[in-house]
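User: I've been trying to design a sequence by hand for this structure and keep getting stuck. Would you show me what you'd pick, starting by listing the structure so we're on the same page?

Assistant: Good idea, let's start from the same input. This is the structure you sent:
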C-alpha cells in the first residue's frame, strides 16, 4: 500500500495464555477447513512518540515494524467505537528505509490525525518483539463477496524503559468481505475456543508500563446526542462506548486494588440496561431479551464487591473523628475486609468465566452488525425516527412514574423511598442520554434540580446500606467477636440514624422543588 492509501482495519482481539494457542489454531482450522501449516515469522516493532506522549493522547500509534530485511511504517488512528474487543482503526502503511519515521509526505487524512507533530519531536518509546503464527481463512458467502479473514496467534514481550512484560494474544482480522459473514465465521471459532476479548493494543501495553502502577479504572464518556440523530444512531453511539468501557475496566476489577474499576464497570452495565428500558417502545424484544438477561447477571455479580467497597471506604470512614470508638470500627473493618475479599474472588470468577467471554463476544457482534435494526431497513421503522420527534415522549414516561412513586414522600418509609430512588436513577440516565436534544437554560435548570435530588436520595441509600451491611456483619460473626461487633454495629447505626434525621428536611425540600420544576422537553426552546 502506498503512502496515500489507507485501510480501515477491523479486527477482534482476544487475550490468551501460551497454552491456548493450539486450541485457537484448531478452531481456526476447523472453521476454514484447513490442513495447511500456519506461517511463522519474527517481528520487531518500535513505537514512536513525543517526550510528553502526545500521540498517545490523540489515540495515534506510529511504529516501524521489521521482519527480515523489510521495514514497514504504520500509523493507526481510531476510526470508530466497535465495542468489546473490536479494533476499528484507520491505517496507513508504507515500506521505508532506515530507522526513523517518514512524515513528510503523509496523506492529508493521516497528517490531520497526527496534527502539528514534527519528525524531530518523535523518538522510540517502546519495542515489541513478537513470534507470530498466522493463517488466512476464505469462506464463500452466498449473499455477497467471499469473506477473507486473517487469524493470528502472537506471543511476545513489550519493553518500555526499564520495564518489560510478556504477553499472548489472538486476533481475527477482516481482510475482505461482509461484516455479517465475518462474525458468522468468528462465532464458530469463538464457540470452539471462547477466549476473553481484549481492547488492549500492543502499544497500550507499553504505555501502561511507562505510566507505572497497577491497572487504572476508566470512566465512560458523556454522550452528546442531538435531535437530528435517529434512535438507531443514538444506540449505535451508546452501545459500543458502554461495552468498550466494560472491557477496559476488566483489569482493574481483576486486580481489585482500585474500587473505581468495579464501580465504573457497573455504571456502564446500568447504562446499557437503562437504554433497553428507555427505548423499549422502539426495540424488538426478540432481538434484545438475551442482552437484558446477561447484563442483569453481570450487574448482580459485581454488586457485592461494590457494596463492600462503599462500606469500607465511605461508610466506616465517615464516622472517623466523631466520637465512635475506633477499636470497634477497626473490628468491623477487619470482618468487612474478609467479606470484600470473597466478593472480589467472585468477581474474578465471573470475569474469567466462559459465560462472560461469550457475553462480551455477543455484545461486540451485536454492535458491529447493528443487531437491534431489522435488515433490510424499512424507512418506516420507528428506530429511524429522529430523536427530536420522540425524545419528549421517551422522557415523559419515567418522569411521570417518578412523580407518582414519590407522592407524599414525607410520609413514606425507607423501603418506599428506596423505590423512589430507583425511579430517580432511571430518569437520570434517560436525561443523560437525551438532554443534548434540548439544549438551553431550561434543561440545565431541570438537570441541576435532578442532580440535587439524586444527591439527597444517594445519602438516603448510603444510610440504608450502612444499616444493612452492618447487620450482615454482626449477624454472621462468631461468638468470640459477637459482642465487639454488636457494640460497633450499634454505634455505626446510631450515628447514621442521627445523620438521616438531620438530612430529612433537605430531602423533602429538594423533592418539592423538583416536583414543581417543569420538564424541559415540554417547554419552548430558549
Amino acid at each position: 500500500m502506498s503512502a496515500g492509501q489507507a485501510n480501515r482495519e477491523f479486527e477482534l482481539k482476544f487475550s490468551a495464555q501460551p497454552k491456548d494457542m493450539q486450541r485457537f489454531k484448531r478452531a481456526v482450522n476447523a472453521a476454514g477447513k484447513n490442513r495447511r501449516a500456519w506461517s511463522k515469522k519474527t517481528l520487531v516493532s518500535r513505537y514512536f512518540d513525543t517526550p510528553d506522549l502526545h500521540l498517545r493522547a490523540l489515540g495515534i500509534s506510529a511504529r516501524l515494524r521489521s521482519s527480515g530485511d523489510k521495514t514497514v511504517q504504520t500509523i493507526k488512528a481510531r476510526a470508530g467505537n466497535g465495542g468489546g474487543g473490536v479494533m476499528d482503526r484507520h491505517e496507513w502503511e508504507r515500506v521505508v528505509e532506515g530507522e526513523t519515521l517518514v512524515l513528510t509526505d503523509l496523506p492529508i487524512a493521516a497528517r490531520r490525525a497526527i496534527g502539528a507533530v514534527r519528525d524531530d519531536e518523535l523518538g522510540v518509546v517502546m519495542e515489541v518483539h513478537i513470534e507470530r503464527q498466522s493463517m488466512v481463512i476464505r469462506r464463500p458467502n452466498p449473499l455477497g463477496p467471499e469473506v477473507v479473514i486473517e487469524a493470528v496467534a502472537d506471543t511476545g514481550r513489550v519493553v518500555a524503559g526499564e520495564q518489560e512484560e510478556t504477553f499472548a494474544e489472538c486476533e481475527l482480522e477482516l481482510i475482505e468481505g461482509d461484516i455479517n459473514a465475518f462474525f458468522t465465521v468468528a462465532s464458530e471459532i469463538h464457540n470452539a475456543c471462547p477466549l476473553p476479548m481484549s481492547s488492549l493494543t500492543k502499544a497500550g501495553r507499553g504505555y501502561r508500563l511507562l505510566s507505572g502502577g497497577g491497572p487504572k479504572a476508566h470512566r465512560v464518556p458523556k454522550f452528546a446526542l442531538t435531535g437530528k440523530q435517529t434512535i438507531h444512531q443514538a444506540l449505535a453511539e451508546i452501545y459500543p462506548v458502554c461495552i468498550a468501557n466494560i472491557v477496559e475496566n476488566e483489569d482493574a476489577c481483576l486486580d481489585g486494588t482500585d474500587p473505581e474499576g468495579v464501580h465504573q464497570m457497573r455504571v456502564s452495565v446500568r447504562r446499557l440496561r437503562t437504554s433497553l428500558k428507555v427505548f423499549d417502545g422502539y426495540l424488538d424484544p426478540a432481538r434484545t431479551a438475551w442482552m437484558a438477561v446477561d447484563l442483569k447477571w453481570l450487574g448482580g455479580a459485581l454488586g457485592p464487591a461494590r457494596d463492600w467497597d462503599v462500606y469500607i471506604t465511605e461508610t466506616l470512614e465517615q464516622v472517623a473523628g466523631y466520637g465512635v470508638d475506633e477499636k470497634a470500627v477497626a473490628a468491623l473493618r477487619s470482618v468487612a475486609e474478609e467479606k470484600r475479599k470473597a466478593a472480589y474472588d467472585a468477581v474474578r470468577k465471573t470475569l474469567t468465566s466462559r459465560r462472560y467471554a461469550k457475553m462480551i463476544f455477543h455484545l461486540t457482534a451485536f454492535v458491529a452488525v447493528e443487531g437491534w435494526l431489522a435488515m433490510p431497513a424499512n424507512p418506516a421503522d420507528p428506530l429511524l425516527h429522529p430523536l427530536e420527534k420522540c425524545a419528549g415522549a421517551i422522557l415523559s414516561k419515567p418522569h411521570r412514574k417518578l412523580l407518582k412513586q414519590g407522592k407524599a414522600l414525607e410520609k413514606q418509609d425507607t423501603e418506599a423511598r428506596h423505590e423512589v430512588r430507583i425511579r430517580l436513577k432511571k430518569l437520570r440516565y434517560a436525561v443523560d442520554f437525551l438532554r443534548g436534544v434540548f439544549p438551553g437554560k431550561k434543561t440545565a435548570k431541570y438537570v441541576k434540580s435532578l442532580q440535587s435530588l439524586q444527591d439527597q436520595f444517594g445519602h438516603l441509600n448510603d444510610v440504608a446500606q450502612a444499616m444493612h451491611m452492618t447487620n450482615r456483619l454482626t449477624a454472621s460473626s462468631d461468638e468470640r467477636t459477637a459482642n465487639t461487633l454488636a457494640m460497633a454495629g450499634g454505634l455505626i447505626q446510631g450515628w447514621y440514624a442521627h445523620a438521616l434525621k438531620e438530612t430529612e428536611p433537605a430531602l423533602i425540600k429538594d423533592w418539592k422543588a423538583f416536583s414543581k420544576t417543569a420538564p424541559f422537553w415540554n417547554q419552548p426552546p430558549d
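That's my pick for every position. To get oriented when you compare it with your attempt: The chain is about 55% helix and 20% strand. The domain at 232-517 is CATH 1.40.20.10 (CHAD domain).
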